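Suppose you are handed a protein chain with no further information: no name, no annotation, nothing but its sequence. What can you learn? This example shows the usual starting point.
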Amino acid sequence: MSAKKRRFTSILNSFLRAFFLFVIFVCLNSLIAPKHFTRVDLTRDKLYTITDATKSLVEDLSDNLIIRGYFSEELPHAYAEIPIYVKDILREYEAYGKGRVEIEVVDPARDEKVREFVTGLGIQPFKLQDRDRDKLVVRNCYMSLAVFHLDQHEVLPDMTQMSSLEYELSRAIVKVTKRSLPSIGLLVDSQAVAPAAPNQQGSNPGFSFEMVFQTLQTQYKVQKVHVQSGQKIPENIGTLLIVRPRDLSEREAFEIDQFVMRGGKLAVFVDTVTFDLTKNLAEVRVQSGLEDLLAHYGFRVRDELVLDENHFYIPVLHRQGMMQLQQNLPYPYYLKINKEDIDKTNPVVKKIGNLLLFWASPLEILDDQVNGREVVELVHSSDKAWSATEYDNVFPSTEGGFGYYRRPDEKNRESFLLAAVQIGEFDSFYKGKEVPEVKKPETPSSPGRSGGIPPGLQDQLPPGFQMKGAPGGQAALEAAKKKAAEAAKKSEGLKEKPEDPPPAPPSSLFQDDGPQPLPNKDPVAQPETQTEEDPAHDHPEDEASSPSSKKPIREIIERSPETRILVITDADMVADANFRNAPCYTFVQNTVDWMTLGNELIEIRSRGVEVPTIEEVPESKAFWIKLLTIGGVPFFVLALGFVRWILRSS
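A reasonable first move is to predict its three-dimensional structure. Written in structure tokens, the prediction is:
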């Protein structure tokens, strides 16, 4: 065989081998890929691969799950890549679902029945602008997802933002596959105000916490907790968020303590001082009423504020001549927390970078109260921070810049702890003590409801008068009112007119807006409402034998099982004005998820939250980096050419 023929045969054999290997690879890929999915993702946070939490979620499904994507085939160029990315991620869900996840993508615009079905789900098309043959047109486009499981479904109506696709989809799967949603409690500032409507003025967003309530409702059953009347925190609540506690009574602190003692998990967002945004940052002192309770648990919030050279800038409008300009000013009260000052182990914060805190206070851990519990220091300020107790310079100044703020020397600066969590068993603050009594309201109650008598009429009533339950009590009260009115007229020199009807009682003092309750047969007045739990009501025979026993019997739980208490010295991060900030939103959501569900979903939500930053480089190191980048490449090319020249010469 000639050399030419041998060469041709060798090339043909190589081609055939490559061809058959390609065919085998394609066949194996089509057979194995649906069940064994593998992808290489070189991004730092694995943005194009579903997380281990999502994989476990779909692998553990007990029933079939259907995920339908509703996307228009003709989308504007700016959104054309979204369906491709969504389908790619959905294939991973299908692959790891082991046959229990069904994927379907349809265009509602092409089928009238599908369009009617998605309209019933609450899915509406988006009106998006596009250019068609040099004309600006508006298209009705569908970009939504829906998850179906048995008789449950959850809709993701807006798929225009891809940064949170996996989290929103996994959250929807968790919601439809769980028979009952976990319950969490929310106890907010008693003086918080409702947010104003868009056409209203005067609402202070710094004193409103409605957005966190609405956000958590998408995943949990959220109950607003009220314990001022001495009622227990509901047993179905496993996690309690306390946001800016203010002037809580001892009985309220007792109910919170007993919630922890029965194993409830507690997160406290506490302030010592805040500032009213509608009154030129007027100082507002905050006494939580939980100082002694938190100190017993090992936390102490100092009555100071932290300022830091590592801070955010805030925009301030100022007038210059006839013009109004906006200037970004340094504001050391707004702390910028970098990733090196955040704990790297706890799932609540380990993926959060550049956390923003507003008017935060130093937090101390009392070692003598920890009693062997695990303490995790979550968030610190930088080591260039200092604290202050006087806040006369809290309003940013357009003159002086950062020098406007009084700063100590660098040797007097330090890093302050701002958030921490303790994990373990806690002893009750009320161990060996009596149950605190319920704080009675300071305002006088309505006489028609609780037996109160308006001032000035007490002397006009007959002896032994009873507001409720006493026969003839209402008639006697009317007579006393009439007598008081007659005396007032005589004192003013007015002539009495017999034909005038007696004056009606004021609505603010008397109950005259409906039928009155029938008088009790017992001449002794009975309370209408029961503010505390009274075992006598469950056992009428005991009540008859001991009528004087009115005080509830509460058994104090003296030690808790293993639980978690988290304290962060900033409640303003939860306020409506700041909750839109992505790291603040993620911190609150991670806190609730970690306490309620463990680590589930935290890894997904935290992905992509940390914004990459350019690290500061010393001048000496920067010189060598510039030298290598500018002169290194030409030197490498010359060296490579020199080596090649030597090899060719030899």
